[in-house]
């Protein structure tokens, strides 16, 4: 098994949690007490991490919110990553960037995301194909999280298009899990808002771990996700919650609540099996 997936499973088992906390630190929503610092997003992230780390198996900064703040934001992200490596190296880090381009451009992204920022994994578009994504896929020391069935309301515009009787999202799931995953370092993005599709994706990709956005603000149901997506080992899910945790009045309680809801749903699945 890929070292990053091993790292995630160790962490998930150690703290009994499949929770991924999204560090979507939109500047306008950061509490005022952090905005007087040189790097407000970093100070906010550090506080969120201290509040939530005991419940988090992964952290997922979304690049958009740091890029929007220019040099200050990218420095804040670099500081956040260094803080996580220094203080919580056992927690998996995900760069939510949804990158995809031709091969030589992707080599630049690989150097930036994996080597400069030090992320464990990155979200990627499959549209350009395996050949273009080779610089990511070849990094057996990292993990590639491929968009499959996304959580947004308009996801079906392309993802539901059929080829040879199969929706595109199913073809992506099959291709990634059966052909692209030669180094055991591929995962899939499968939205919480489409549990029926998630169940079908689990059937064709039984050993693949899913990053699951859409719980909380987007309306995804934790119990439905766990029922549809849990693998036979009681893992296979990184269930992401962002705004409902980091912008709540009590991030620790919010993270604990999602963790507890996931574990309660897991118990229900275990009883039914």
TrEMBL record:
Its EC number is 4.1.1.23. Transmembrane segments: none annotated. One of its GO terms (molecular function) is orotidine-5'-phosphate decarboxylase activity. The keyword Lyase applies. Coiled coil: none annotated. Pathway: Pyrimidine metabolism; UMP biosynthesis via de novo pathway; UMP from orotate: step 2/2. GO terms for biological process: 'de novo' pyrimidine nucleobase biosynthetic process; 'de novo' UMP biosynthetic process. It is an enzyme of class 4 (lyase). Residues 18-258 form the Orotidine 5'-phosphate decarboxylase domain. The keyword Lyase applies. Keywords: Decarboxylase, Lyase, Pyrimidine biosynthesis. It catalyses: orotidine 5'-phosphate + H(+) = UMP + CO2. It comes from the Bacteria. It holds the Pfam family OMPdecase. NCBIfam families: pyrF_sub2. Belongs to the OMP decarboxylase family. Type 2 subfamily. This is Orotidine-5'-phosphate decarboxylase. It comes from Granulicella mallensis.
